[in-house]
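Hi team,

As requested, here is the filled-out complex form for the heme C run. I kept the field names the same as last time so the parser does not choke. Let me know if anything looks off before we queue the next batch.

— J.
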Amino acid sequence: MSYPVWDAPIGYGVLMGVIAILHVFVSHFAIGGGLYLVLAERRARRNSDDAALDFLKRMSRFFVLLTLVFGALSGVGIWFIIGLLSPAATEVLIHQFGWVWAIEWTFFVVEITAAILYYHSWDRITAKAHLTLGWIYFVAAWLSLFAINGIITFMLTPGRWLETGSVLHGFFNPTFWPSLVLRTGICGMLAGLYGLLLAAREPEGDFKARTVRATARWGLLGLAASALSLAWYAKAVPAAVTAKATLDLSLPGASLQAALWLAAVLAALLLLALLWGKRLPAAFATVLMLVGLVWFGAFETWRESLRKPYIIHGYLYGNGLRVTEATATRQTGLLTRADATTGDLGLDLFLRTCRSCHTWSGYKPLKPAFDGTEPGFVATVVQNIHLLRGNMPPFPGNAAEAELLATHLHARTDQRPLSARFAGAVLGRQAFAIRCAICHPVNSPNDKSKSFTGLSAGEIGGLLDMAADLGEGMPPYTGDEKERTALIEHLQTLGRKVKP
Ligand code: HEC
Ligand code: HEC
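And here is what came back:
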């Protein structure tokens, strides 16, 4: 709780996503590309294939530039970003896995040294020594994946670590092995995609034909391996975790579906490349690469979305509080534990309880969710965010702090009543979206449409009068007369739409 909050006008989820996805897209290639280079070099040397050796030399230049410069810089970028966005989580990870990181960095140093030497020594040392350098590169790179894989998978499935606190239990957690195989498959696939990018630029001819075919095969084999291990991986995630994540958030389902479709598209494109051979256009290889990037992004988004509302599942919430800490702060108050404050208590509460996932009026904005409502409504919602759609952690402050935050938020809303901004059916829909659908989205397990089927306007009015008694945490209905009439009509419409 002693960390200051970084309040920049950006969506943190998007910022983290963009940097992390670009980083993994390059760093997985750094591993797969290493294996591609040594295996292709071994073959080319055996066959005294000078054209292939020349191609590999050029590839190793592109490879060293991309992986060392972009890979290393974006890796450092990730450290900056996680330190800024989630200092508490970064602290836990460093405390648990300090040695693992030290090991990973050692592999990384070996990896980059070998890569630089490999690139510079094509014609300067014996073939055997050169290949050895290549192997050292690949093995060190893969071992660094082995190390970091334990930390990434730990965050979603800490497994027995939650009880034992043992670093080994945390590292070799339930998704460690499937994820390692999956990511190794991705490495191979990316070697294919990057390789095709270069092979497609070769002049049309026999050399291009065989290089494109061999490289497309890498893509297909890697894709097949990752598709199979994705199923294994999904199975290794505890069913309760997946069920909770997919209950009322569409993102996990949508991103998994996108990942599966894109894998099919990738497979089709790679087959096409295989058939095209020497006529493969450079533009086509670029498209393949972009599809691969979006595919990888969809997979990582799915994996990350399963973890909500935690950063470390079952241990640390997205807002940076430990589960046990948050239980205590609900009694004792949150701000008493904050060292770094802005001087505005309401703002501090917003920054420390909502800002890790929302902005006020930009990315995932809160303002539209509260425009036209009353302080009492905002306060009830704040105290019950764990009931809303979105898998949010419970509000971690005490009752007085919830009031304080609600006052702060309400003062910044558009305070005209909804009925002054909307009319008729639009007003009804808007009132429903703001006052009900945040907890009862239509077509979700919390959909209450059925409860309104066949009810008269008077009966629904009666329900609204006792709204606060319908469920623990449900706000009283506080809209004005015009809004109320429109909302009742909308609820009747919803009730009529329910399929018997
Ligand atoms: C760990 C992340 C996280 C934290 C912390 C968090 N939220 Fe959310 N919240 C979400 C997600 C995800 C959604 C679903 C919105 C979406 O899918 O875009 C959501 C939705 C909402 C909604 C419904 C809006 C809508 O468009 O459906 C409200 C209101 C809301 N949050 C209020 C709050 C308040 C107030 C706080 C702070 C006290 C807070 N949230 C803290 C992640 C979070
Ligand atoms: C902050 C979350 C929240 C909001 C906002 C909310 N509800 Fe609820 N509602 C609940 C909870 C919690 C329950 C009790 C558990 C359940 O039945 O799912 C509940 C129960 C209900 C029930 C169930 C009655 C029953 O016994 O079957 C109805 C009907 C209902 N709500 C309608 C509404 C309507 C209409 C609105 C908008 C005016 C609304 N709710 C807004 C949280 C909320």
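Two things worth flagging: Residues 381, 384, 387-388, 435-436, 438-440, 446, 448, 451, 467, 470-475, 477, 491 surround heme C (ligand 2) (CB under 6 Å). Strands lie at 310-312, 316-317.

Thanks,
J.
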